[in-house]
Protein 1
Amino acid sequence: MENYKGKVINLKELKDLKIGFALTASYCNFKEVITYISKLIETGAKVVPIMSYNSYTYDTRFGKAEEFIAEIEEMTGEKIMKTLVDVEPLGPKDLIDIIVVAPCTGNTLAKLANGITDTSVLGAIKTMRRNDKPVVIAIATNDALALNMRNIFTLQNTKGITFVPFKQDNAKDKPYSLVAEWDKMVETIEDVAKGLE
């Protein structure tokens, strides 16, 4: 047990933590990632959902946007934050303790590493970092071992940003692709929670 802002937190359960969970448009990972939203809720955490414009808007061969939205909103009991205006109060009003970006695309990685905040997810990260709150990134990008490697290195060396362990996705068919080890996401969030003061 540890104290965080007057709350007693059981780190094994993440009880009483407010976790922002942001999805970007790696659609093929949505079904798996959404199961981890449920797991976080089971630990006792409150999950505040955030989606980028692309992830919130487009249907793909992996599913319909409206079905993902309905599932996430029903699971969390919260309306999804989808605009810069929606996410702006997160930091100043102390609405969340940690933000998790899963899946985090190469596009989002590149913009974050270069200080660009033109989406709801990037705006949410910015508002959290201005208050020195932690960011957990679970990557899923086909160009990680090519154009995005320098951005990964930059972010790995940035205070307050932690990566969920990742691995090569499919060395034969997608030689530049990396994907988070989804089953290590909750453990990574627990580790980050230990550092909250």
Protein 2
Amino acid sequence: MRCRICGGLLERRVTDLPFKIGDSSIVILKSLPVLQCDQCGDTELEQATMLRVDELLASVDGSTELEVIRYAA
């Protein structure tokens, strides 16, 4: 696959990514499988991964300022 930003090759990697929930909550998903561009570093999530991320983020307590969750498919 090619990067939608620069056209570079996307490589499968596992990384940690932050997601902002609401105005004041941040969730860090650890060990998240992503596609990352080898040129510009842009990351993309595959459809199945994004669906699971949506489920995980929906279960987060919005009053928590910071939460760290290990991704599990």
